[in-house]
Specification:
The protein has about 775 residues and is α/β, with parallel strands linked by helices. The chain is built from 28 helices and 18 strands. The strands form 4 sheets. An 8-stranded mixed beta sheet has the order 4-3-5-2-6-7-1-8, sandwiched between helices. Strands 9-16-13-10-12-11 form a 6-stranded parallel beta sheet. A two-stranded antiparallel ribbon has the order 14-15. Helix 1 packs parallel to helix 8, helix 5 packs across helix 7 and helix 20 packs across helix 21. The protein is globular and about 100 Å long. Its EC number is 3.6.4.13. It is an enzyme of class 3 (hydrolase). Pfam families: DEXQc_Suv3, Helicase_C, SUV3_C, Suv3_C_1, Suv3_N.
């Protein structure tokens, strides 16, 4: 029996080795084929860039999620027990624990990709499998029996342990193939059509309001064919109209809209599009890439990288800040293309002031206060109204029509509105008559993949775009100024504005993720993205763009049965994840789609409760903005899944009606804020209308020098009973300013009440007459 056992053991060991060799061969073969395919397609991106020597970097094994192995009875049944003897569970446990403690085994496993973390997880799974299965396979049963009898060594378990480890961690067998797929060091090679022609690259360099884009557009209009790639729908729409007004037929392509000038739907030779929508396979004579400095943007930079490297145009006209010249020139060295630089000077003077504003009492006509949260917008616009001034309001979630309406109000010299309160939404696409830009803050709140709030300092490209809105050539102010609200922010702003552009963004494509999924078929999309980024290799000129929004949506719809390509497309949808109603709608859209049930116009109307009425308070206004975002989402999906989202034209019609309704609300925004404050229950912040998507938000940035609530010395105030008290508690107001506001509010309220009584008595007198 002992001799037979040893013979059986050797036969089984040979079988295991042959099986593993066959698996390795299949993985390497298929992986090399898919990599050749992947190297010719797509574009990529993430912030966690690494240098070109990253091939030796170990993967982040915390991202490797072990698969569950079913404890089924082997096909050979109880053969092992019949050939030897039944095994005692206690003895098995002792042998397994002894194997785990063997340092030699851990070292050998590490050479196979099992670091300490994975070794431990694999052992726990292997132990559970051995102890819980009713009958072990014959070969493994015989190995355990030999060890019990002293005819084998504890190390003989290693091949079976590794076989189990590769079952629960399938990426171990294909690690080199995964590394090849995620190798992003030569993105220029992803675009063979562009590399097949010798392109002429012209950089139109200058600050905002220097005429650089105008000169590039003139060449675009004179060409036989061309494409304009802009960062915003408003900019694409502006070029679309300018081109057609100039007698050059031009189509419009954005994420949510396709407009063809030809009545029969034939494509024009010219197209204006948002940069994510540009085609890298269509040949053009001239391509214009606007705002090239956004190639460094941590979320969208990949789209500029893709356009710059991939557009098939004889001439590439790049427009942007001078800070990006050296980087773009260096980037073009990798393609063998020279860069011609044309410099432009600002058409109007522009200066950074040496003093901060420090108080809203120091505002002047033509001032624009830039905030990075809607709560700040609401609060500041209310305080401006208290001072007897009118202000316009512009922020990102407003519909385009409402933004244009507010811009027109602010620009109108006959309108009493002389102050603008806005977010970074004014940075591009709106012509505004601004004398002075005032940064209320230099930090912008973001939401990470866990739904937690994080505060990040604004980027150089964001700061330059916003600051450059002051003193535009076409405005009544021929000189521009920029400063901050708080004194301590001014040197920080100057430092931000002086930085250069030094890296370009990339992003994983659907093709690359599909190749990953081939090797890791049981991994979730979010996990695939994590592993891709962990293994990705980029050189020092690139970084992988932020994928938090993508992962947020992937996790949200993971439980919904979708094929990988459709799931990927859904997760690239541009939605506002801060809005619960938008997230809920996204989830319902995906669920309806998975059932193969078209989302009709009637279905959408029921979902958003159409028709809607003008808002009565800020909460209503925020909800209307969320509904507008949901309709945007429908339109975006309708161009990717036309059969499932068939009623885009009807949805666009009600979206225009909704835009008009929102305009009414924004025109009366201070009245809505007053209504919100009046109706807010005690102990709540009436301007916090959005439920948090995470458990641990970051507190707002404190005003420098503002004391904490317990040190405030505000007498007679319950700190949890009013908005003002909460602002003091969070460090957003000083006690002195709060007392001043209290007095002003009381005075204004008395005047409003007296005015209302007078109006009512006058109205009643008319009625009696």
């Amino acid at each position: 029996m002992l001799l037979f056992s040893r013979v059986q053991h050797r036969i089984c060991a040979i079988s295991v080795r042959n099986t593993n060799a066959l698996v390795d061969s299949r993985c390497v073969h298929s992986g090399s084929i898919t990599f050749l395919k992947g190297s010719l397609s797509g574009s990529v991106s993430t912030r966690q860039g690494v240098s070109s020597n990253s091939s030796s970097r170990p993967p982040d094994t915390s991202l490797f999620v072990p698969l569950s192995i079913k404890s089924d009875v082997g096909s050979d049944g109880a053969v092992g027990a019949e050939l030897t003897q039944p095994l005692d569970k206690n003895e098995l446990l002792k042998m397994l624990n002894k194997f785990y403690k063997r340092k030699e085994m851990q070292k050998i496993a590490a050479d196979q990709g099992l670091d300490a973390r994975l070794f431990h997880q694999a052992f726990i799974s292997f132990r559970k499998y051995v102890l819980e299965i009713s009958m072990l396979s014959a070969d493994l049963h015989i190995i355990f029996n030999d060890i019990c009898c002293g005819a084998g060594h504890i190390d003989d378990l290693y091949p079976y342990f590794m076989r189990h480890a590769k079952q629960i961690f399938p990426m171990l067998d294909c690690m080199e193939d995964l590394r090849k797929i995620s190798d992003l060091r030569v993105p220029a090679n992803w675009y063979p059509e562009a590399r097949a022609i010798q392109r002429k690259v012209i950089f139109h360099a200058g600050p905002t309001n220097s005429g650089k884009t105008h000169h590039a557009i003139q060449r675009y209009l004179a060409a036989k064919s061309g494409v304009y790639c802009g960062p915003l729908k408003l900019l694409a729409h502006e070029i679309f109209e300018k081109s057609n007004n100039a007698g050059v037929p031009c189509d419009l392509v954005t994420g949510e809209e396709r407009t063809f000038v030809d009545e029969e739907g034939r494509q024009a030779e010219h197209v204006a599009c948002t940069i994510e929508m540009c085609s890298v396979t269509t040949p053009y004579e001239v391509a214009v890439i606007d705002e090239i400095q956004m190639i460094r943007d941590i979320s969208r930079g990949w789209a500029w990288t893709r356009a710059l490297l991939g557009l098939c145009a004889e001439e590439i006209h790049v427009c942007g800040e001078p800070a990006a010249i050296n980087f773009v020139t260096e980037l073009m060295y990798t393609t063998g293309e020279e860069v011609e630089v044309r410099n432009y000077k600002r058409l109007t003077p522009f200066s950074i002031l040496d003093h901060a504003v420090e108080s809203l009492d120091n505002l002047r006509p033509g001032d624009c206060i830039v905030c990075f949260s809607k709560n700040d917008i609401y609060s500041i616009s209310r305080q401006i109204e208290i001072r007897g001034l009118e202000c316009a309001v512009i922020y990102g979630s407003l519909p385009p029509g409402t933004k244009l309406s507010q811009a027109k109000k602010f620009n109108d010299p006959e309108d009493p509105c002389k102050i603008l309160v806005a977010t970074d939404a004014i940075g591009m696409g709106l012509n505004l008559s601004i004398k002075r830009i005032i940064f209320n803050s230099l930090v912008k709140p973001n939401i990470n993949e866990k739904g937690e709030k994080e505060l990040d300092t604004i980027s150089t490209s964001q700061a330059l775009q916003i600051a450059g809105r002051a003193g535009r050539f076409s405005s009544i102010f021929k000189e521009g100024e920029v400063t901050t609200m708080h004194r301590d922010d001014l040197p920080i702003l100057k430092e931000i504005l002086s930085r250069n552009v030094d890296t370009a963004g990339l992003h994983p494509t659907a093709e690359q993720i599909e190749m990953f999924a081939y090797h890791l078929p049981d991994a979730t999309l979010s996990n695939l993205i994590d592993i891709f980024v962990s293994l990705s290799q980029v050189d020092g000129m690139y970084f992988v763009c932020n994928i938090d929004d993508f992962k947020f949506l992937a996790d949200m719809i993971q439980h919904i049965p979708l094929n990988l390509r459709s799931r990927y497309v859904f997760c690239t949808a541009p939605i506002n994840k801060k809005q619960p109603f938008v997230c809920t709608s996204f989830l319902k859209f995906a669920r309806q789609f998975s059932r193969d049930e078209p989302l009709t116009f009637d279905w959408v109307c029921r979902h958003v409760s159409w028709p809607l009425v003008p808002p009565k308070n800020i909460k209503d206004l925020v909800h209307l903005e969320a509904v507008h975002d949901v309709l945007d989402l429908y339109l975006w999906l309708s161009y990717r899944f036309m059969d499932m989202f068939p009623d885009a034209n009807h949805v666009r019609e009600i979206q225009k009606e909704l835009d008009s309704i929102i305009q009414v609300g924004v025109r009366n925004i201070t009245r809505l804020i007053r209504a919100t404050e009046t109706n807010a229950p005690p102990g709540t912040n009436p301007l916090s209308n959005q439920r948090r998507l995470g458990p641990s938000p970051v507190s707002p940035r404190r005003v420098r020098g503002a004391p904490k609530a317990q040190d405030s010395g505000v007498e007679g105030w319950q700190l949890d009973k009013s908005l003002g008290s909460r602002l003091v508690q969070e460090g957003l107001l000083t006690p002195d300013l709060l007392r001043q506001l209290q007095k002003e509010w009381s005075k204004v309220h008395r005047q409003e009440e007296e005015g209302l009584l007078h109006k009512n008595s006058h109205f009643m007198g008319q009625k009696v007459t």
